[in-house]
């Protein structure tokens, strides 16, 4: 018996419904997978909210002073000299834009130094530090310009460019970045504050970040699994190299310029300051190791797809050859990133003609060398490991998938 034809709006509406349903729910497996991922995401957010309920030690007393946004409404006294130079500080009148003092006018001093203060102009938004004094009332000082909207604008421009140029992969990259920063700030920080080892905490966060980020970017694929295994191995190699090199060179987390602040933190909290340096090395090498690991796994997966009869040994050799081409540029990238961070120190050493013996034996130089080479070392060892895992894992999993079908 032939089914009756649908008349009126039923046909178009039914067609639209079926089309929307096919896009939103392609098949039951995808629906289940998306539901599981959504549940995991919600669980992760709830866990972070709970985990960040930490009672912090009061290392600095902020009572009696606070920072607010304000707008400069008048320059009471300028510090511009006749020769065009600025000496001393400005005296300006500002109107508070937020908080309990919103709308209130304050006379505030603004230093001309590069660290605190700014050269104020009428209409300029600034950050003001208001200190409450029992004798003279409230004292206001210009802390600096309001950089918040500028920084958020730069971040928005970066995200927009990543989305427009990267497309779906760009959106996946944004999600991976969001997870990485949330894990670092809202998971790692309270974790070590509770007394957990900073080094092993960094290992945990690095592994978690590698697994989640590569899954978000690469999806539920064989090359993602191979890239994750190789990345974890490279991270562990970088951390082990840094720990051994630091021990031999007598370097610890206290061998940095922020020594005094770290002493206060170490005495007032449970944070293991001595391990922070090597934890930072793990995080700094994570991106390059993930890049190399996933790229080689993707290349081997493509080679195997084009030639299913290729042997595991041939895939391994091809992966190593591809990795060799990447090692040169990626090592350069890592080392130059650290050189860029220490450029001011290098200029100071060069300008003051600091003796070689003093320079090479300084803790700052030793730390930077160990940091840059540890990441490179982990990345180098990632190449054969990913090639080995990918050349064996990808063909095996693909054969199992075919048999299951």
From TrEMBL:
InterPro entries from the UniProt entry: YibE_F (IPR012507)
Keywords: Membrane, Transmembrane, Transmembrane helix
Signal peptide: none
Highest taxon of source: Bacteria
Record field: transmembrane: 31-51, 150-167, 174-193, 199-218, 225-251, 271-290, 331-352, 372-394
Name the UniProt record assigns to this protein: YibE/F family protein
The species this protein was found in: Ethanoligenens harbinense (strain DSM 18485 / JCM 12961 / CGMCC 1.5033 / YUAN-3)
